[in-house]
Amino acid sequence: MARFFSRLGRAAKNRIKREIIRHHRRSGTVLFSDTTLRDGEQMPGATLEPREKLEIALALEALGVHSLDAGFPASSASDVEAIRLMVPAVKRPVLTALCRTVRGDIDLADEALSGRAQHKRGVSLFCGTSPLHREFKLQKSREQIRDLVCSAIAYAAEKFEIVAFSPEDASRTEPDFLIEMYQAAIDAGATTVGFPDTVGILTPEKTRDALRHIQDHVPNLDRALFAVHFHNDLGLAVANTLAAIQEGVNVVQGTINGIGERAGNTALEQVALAMSLHPEEYGPLERIDLKNVAALCRLVAERTGIPIPVNQPIAGANIFATEAGIHQDGLLKNPDTYLPYRPDHVGGPGIELVIGRHSGRRAVRHRLEELGFQFDDAQVGLVLDTIKQQPKGTFVSETALRQIAAEIGQ
């Protein structure tokens, strides 16, 4: 198929690309694009070695992501090395390389991805479009920005069949200029256009308004996939992404564990979990396999050195653990009483009944029986009294519980 596609003329290739895009748009399937290895790694302290990136990329492939933002070749030789490792090893996802609207960046991306089938490789171009970026960072007019972007897209389209463009700081760009940029980018050859909330300023309501305006006013938007990329500076990245899904976007981008610049990015695993639990709101979760997502979260944390908060959904240490007596009693009777989803839904560990000052009689009895102690109610009460006298914040380990039980059972 790849050899057949390579022999086609430009017009025929464009027709096939348009039909593929139309198919994706009609299907309603949400495609997941992961940027853990690029935007996520930009988080201070999260630097990954090329072999670690490959390990995570293979785990992301197993998860079922559609595309991987594999790196920024112009930024370092290490990124190029990581991409070169992925090219033969990662089979299913599209591998993309990030580029500025600079021909040298595009050439480096082409070289890093050489040997990869055309339908499995792409380039992602970005350029600031907001007044702040135009005036202070780029010192260019609207017209200069538009011409620069279109020229870069046209050049990239000579080397890549998959060309994505994102107007950096789109959420603070004037709506009329944003519309102009999307229309021009698609006319120049972009097959995907993105809406990045670069500084994480949006709310779900403003996200909906912005996306509806774009969809209503970009006349050629049906010729490209529409993607979103949110940052988490207000703690709303996942909520904004879910709002975008309800507005019909085709591609959602984020990172595992939500790592990334400042407060991070959309946590892709949380978006997938919400979709799996609420298909009536967000449509079916297709292609993503959640069975091992908790293990993937832990892998990313281990390799980046960025710990997972204990209260983080899916892989946080406390997500399937409780010390509260009422909750422990309910979980022992039926896990669904105090869980929104079972641990096996995400490949998580089993339910953990933490023994401490908040624990109740039923949980203590249960743990004692697991340890082989058959106590009557009075003895269980004495064990519980001893536990409640422990210093603030003390969790009673298995060893400590055995010792308490042994002393009371004498």
From TrEMBL:
GO molecular function term, any single one: 2-isopropylmalate synthase activity
Top-level taxon in the UniProt lineage: Bacteria
InterPro entries linked: 2-IPM_HCS-like (IPR050073), AIPM/Hcit_synth_CS (IPR002034), Aldolase_TIM (IPR013785), LeuA/HCS_post-cat (IPR054691), PYR_CT (IPR000891)
Gene3D superfamilies recorded: 1.10.238.260, Aldolase class I
Domain Pyruvate carboxyltransferase, chain residue ranges per copy: 30-294
Keyword annotations from UniProtKB, A to Z: Amino-acid biosynthesis, Branched-chain amino acid biosynthesis, Leucine biosynthesis, Manganese, Transferase
Pathway(s) of this molecule: Amino-acid biosynthesis; L-leucine biosynthesis; L-leucine from 3-methyl-2-oxobutanoate: step 1/4
PROSITE patterns according to UniProt: AIPM_HOMOCIT_SYNTH_1 (PS00815), AIPM_HOMOCIT_SYNTH_2 (PS00816), PYR_CT (PS50991)
Enzyme category, top tier: transferase
Any one of the GO BP annotations: L-leucine biosynthetic process
Listed EC numbers: 2.3.3.13
Protein family (similarity comment): Belongs to the alpha-IPM synthase/homocitrate synthase family. LeuA type 1 subfamily.
Name recorded for this polypeptide: 2-isopropylmalate synthase
Native species: Planctomicrobium piriforme
